[in-house]
Automatic annotation (TrEMBL), chain A:
Residues 12-80 form the HTH gntR-type domain. Coiled coil: none annotated. It comes from Streptomyces cylindrosporus. Signal peptide: none annotated. The keyword Transcription regulation applies. Keywords: DNA-binding, Transcription, Transcription regulation. Transmembrane segments: none annotated. This is GntR family transcriptional regulator. It comes from the Bacteria. The lineage of its organism: Bacteria, Bacillati, Actinomycetota, Actinomycetes, Kitasatosporales. InterPro entries: Tscrpt_reg_HTH_GntR (IPR000524), WH-like_DNA-bd_sf (IPR036388), WH_DNA-bd_sf (IPR036390).
TrEMBL record, chain B:
This is ABC transporter ATP-binding protein. The keyword Iron does not apply. Keywords: ATP-binding, Nucleotide-binding, Transport. InterPro entries: AAA+_ATPase, ABC_transporter-like_ATP-bd, ABC_transporter-like_CS, ABC_Transporter_VariousFunc, P-loop_NTPase. The lineage of its organism: Bacteria, Bacillati, Actinomycetota, Actinomycetes, Kitasatosporales. SMART domains: AAA. GO terms for molecular function: ATP binding. It comes from Streptomyces cylindrosporus. Pfam families: ABC_tran. Residues 9-237 form the ABC transporter domain.
UniProtKB/TrEMBL annotation, chain C:
Keywords: Membrane, Transmembrane, Transmembrane helix. The chain crosses the membrane at residues 28-48, 89-109, 130-155, 175-200, 207-229, 300-318. It comes from the Bacteria. It comes from Streptomyces cylindrosporus. This is ABC transporter permease.
Amino acid sequence: MVEYRIDRRSGVATYVQIVQQTKQALRLGLLEPGDKLPTAREVVEATAINPNTVLKAYRELEREGLVEARRGLGTFVRRSLGTATPAESPLHGELDAWASKAREAGLDREDVAALFTAVLEKHFTDKHSLGDVS
Amino acid sequence: MTDTAGLALEATAVGRRFGARWKAPAWALRDCTFKLAAGRVCAVVGPNGAGKSTLLALAAGLLVPTEGTVTVLGTDPASARTRVGYVAQDKPLYPQLTVAETLRMGADLNPGRWDAATGERIVADGGLDPAARVRSLSGGQRTRVALALALAKRPELLLLDEPMADLDPLARHELMGVLMAQAAQHGTTIVMSSHVVAELEGSCDHLLLIGGGRVRLSGEIDDLLAAHVRVSGLAETSLDPHTVVEARTTGRQLTALVRPSGPLPESLRTSTPSLEELVLSYLRNPQAPGTTPAEHEKAAI
Amino acid sequence: MTALAAPAALRAPSPRLSRWLLRLHRPALYVFTGLVLVLAAALLWLWGPLTDAAAEGWRQWNACGDHPRCSYDQDAILRYKKVYDVTTLAMFLLPFLVAAWAGGALTGGELENGTAELTWTQGVTPARWLAAKLALPAALVAVGTGLLVLLHHLMWSAGEGRIDTSKSWYDTLTFAVNGPGLVGLALAGLVVGALAGLVVRRALAALGVALAAMAALWFATLSALPYLWPAVTTTGDLDSGFAVDGLHVDYGLVTSTGRHIPVPVCNGRCEDVYTKLDAVGIYNDYHPRSHFWPLHLMEAGLLLALAALLTLLAFRLLTRRTATARHREEAAV
């Protein structure tokens, strides 16, 4: 089960936050196929956000084929985001080493983040999964 | 949206005047026209004294409009009385009754509709002792009991006048959660007023901005935000033919909130306003043209 | 009152308001019941032992004749008088108490602190709310004051002719509490108070307005009372006096043509003045003892009519101020 944490000051639309956090949970293996997402009622009771926002996020996840709504039962995970990178994978190690190097080179947190984002943009522009939603 | 069946609340040219006719009458609300679809969570926002409470009291059938008509759940407010929940700003309750007695009274006053389990759950979730007298409760606890009374009658439309005022952040978050859960589970339409916009952001999907007794903005929050753009650029940039809600120049810099009526000049940097920015811009500029059906109609004439 | 609330009752099971009315106004109920019980006990005490003792005291006194050293039970006579006066005054004040409570607590207070609106947004229409608020207290007030009036009348009758200083039937306070007029005044007080609360919408102010209105109503009743039933006229010659045993309405001179004229001012030389005015006799308009019941029933009837009128006004005011289901037929289509 996932618990959503909504940051109202982040500037990221609330439903996008739910979509992202669900995907995060799928990548990290916290959610697996067959798992039930919390009901809209459960989410809004804990977060005090609008129910339609939760439904919008779930519809988006459904559109992407990640979850399916079963009438009267709830929303269930259909497939995982299998390319998840466990903490001990070689990729993690390489990134970790790179971050240490960046730090030694005198880059601060924001510099690194900007650099990383720029590289991400270059390699993943066509896969910007939420860009076409709004 | 246009059929009356799907509407929870509709006001047509509603005005409400207070004070005796022979003295200078004061209009608390004037020429107020809007529609609210069922299932929405609507924020009624405006400065103090804008007419928010009057509007809610009219919808609850506690007041009659001086002019115009209010339609609630497809009928007149009095006929909808049993299907509407209302919590007044100061959360009136009988201080001499206990929490349990208050809920029992609700059951007796709403025969055939009362959902005792809901009322008891809302009260119990707040850790309230059913045997405690209402007069001994804190502000947040009173609000909880008042909400329990309003929700246990299973309203299709819930009207809340400044429900979160005087509550600490924790109680505010908890009670907003209770309300949202109600909306999620029963599709209850919720209309709540506040003069603190930040309090409602995220919980509401519809906005009704009231200023000076009139409707300034009315619509889905996403639509309203999408229709407006925050722009900044050089002071000499012309914003014609776009509708300017608010514009300020600081030195050579121009910042403005506009409702574009076409593509904006390339030289301007644009961003999406937050709900609070949007509301504040309109409130700071009483002359800014609003977007309400009534205004459109008037403009057409 | 119930007729107005009836349409709403046809649609859904009716809300149980009376039970909560009793619960919310429990202190008032206790105070009123306590007052009625204490006064009833005092009246019973007066009716039996005190009347007998006082009558015996007067018998002893009358037996004394001119005997200089005579013993009689003066304490019994004084005790009767004191308890009688206090009880009568307390009964007379009951309608004012009812009006003050109705204005301050029943309607004014509820409108001031918003609990009226709370009830109206539960399943209760304002009209039904007011109907319950008036019906139940009206029944209690009618029963309570009715019982006291009955006991007072029995008690007063028991002393009549036996106690030399017992109050006459037309003594202002005694008359006020000795018959159904008091029930009428108390019920009018309830409605006057409730209406004051609806108009003023503040507990304390409504209490004040209710009391002022009741004082005005009482003085109006007092001045109208002699004219509520045709008076009896007696005439006599010029030497007979103006004193009558009954409620005086008017008196004056009768001329030789039979015309009734007022008594002129004459400084000790009345005979000359009378001759000048062609006065041959005097007349008295008054109500004899036999008019007690007609007067009381008329007073009660008029006060009840006023109460009904004010009730109607209260409902009109409330339904005009709040939304009422005017479009029920339209909505049903």
